[in-house]
Specification:
mainly alpha, 0% strand, globular
């Protein structure tokens, strides 16, 4: 039977894949990318599904679509979906221009993402300029608006500038920006920004740069606060706790407290073995420190057992 034109038109309109008509599916994938700190067993399947969805869905809610794309960038970045990142950035910029979305947070975030791609091309100086420009935008907004998104983004931008200075071996500049990022977040506890993964990352960055400056007392003070949050919220069998006791082991090793160093480093190794794939960088790093510890103690048989577990180019007595 031939379909009547009016019925056909209504059917096509009612079954179009828009954000509004696919809200359940849209929210499901949005929830996945928002918890990008959690691992999934087959990220490539999720990435391909999301990539197809954002390419074919009809945009009837531009701001919702933009926020989805913005949250998607760090998710793609985490799983090294490099081919999609450039296209994603172009799509974000297109949506902002097409729908005239130019809020300070959106403009600053766009600059931050552009900087990230510049870093992938080893162009740290240009990336630094873009992130500092993003900070200027957000500082003006921060002077007028104190809300969760503004404060969180401003804090993250300071942290991200700190990471660039770290890559340029400018420890003092990196420390200044990491500290600013941390203090902004702590200042606004009422916005529920303290117990977040972003804060933990910032605290670890600040701890590492204090260690590089040989300011171990300050590093230990920050680490104590980090450990308290992680233990309370994530437990002692989490990746974050493993990172915490890895740093504790490194500090103890630097201060020649070998028994304490061994306790923490072996504990970190155990956690990394059970929470990450066997080839992960954390496991390689902790084993390098354990090897260095046993070499310093003259325990050559134990050192040899770890020597075989780390790449030859990474073997060092620290």
């Amino acid at each position: 039977m031939k379909r009547l034109p009016l019925i056909q038109e209504i059917t096509e309109k009612e079954t179009q894949p828009t954000i509004s008509s696919c809200r359940t599916l849209w929210n499901y994938f949005h929830a996945i990318i928002l918890v990008h700190g959690l691992d999934v067993s087959r990220p490539s399947v999720i990435i391909n599904a999301i990539d197809s969805m954002i390419n074919h869905i009809i945009v009837d809610d531009a701001e919702e679509y933009l926020h989805f794309l913005q949250h998607l960038f760090p998710y793609f970045e985490k799983y090294k979906a490099d081919e999609q990142l450039q296209k994603l950035l172009e799509r974000i910029e297109y949506i902002m221009n097409e729908f005239h979305i130019a809020a300070p947070c959106d403009r600053a975030l766009l600059l931050d993402y552009k900087a990230e791609l510049l870093l992938e091309d080893n162009n740290a100086e240009k990336a630094l300029k873009k992130r500092k420009r993003a900070i200027e935008i957000m500082e003006k907004e921060y002077a007028q608006t104190i809300d969760q998104r503004t404060v969180s983004l401003l804090s993250n931008l300071y942290n991200n500038v700190g990471t660039i200075y770290t890559s340029l071996y400018k420890k003092d500049d990196a420390a200044a920006y990491f500290e600013k990022a941390f203090l902004i977040r702590i200042k606004h506890k009422e916005l529920d920004l303290v117990e977040t993964h972003d804060l933990l990352q910032q605290m670890m960055n600040l701890t590492n740069v204090r260690l590089a400056q040989n300011r171990t007392d300050e590093a230990e003070n920050i680490l104590a606060h980090y450990e308290m949050i992680v233990t309370e919220k994530l437990g002692t069998d989490s990746l974050d706790y493993g990172i915490c006791i890895l740093i504790r082991g490194i500090i103890a090793l630097k201060q020649c407290r070998y028994s304490e160093a061994e306790h923490f480093l072996l504990g970190a190794e155990h956690i990394f073995q059970h929470t990450m794939p066997q080839s992960n960088d954390y496991l390689k790093s902790v084993r390098q420190y354990i090897y260095a510890l046993y070499m310093k103690q003259g325990k050559h048989s134990l050192a040899d057992s770890y020597k075989s577990k780390i790449p030859k180019e990474q073997i060092t007595s620290k």
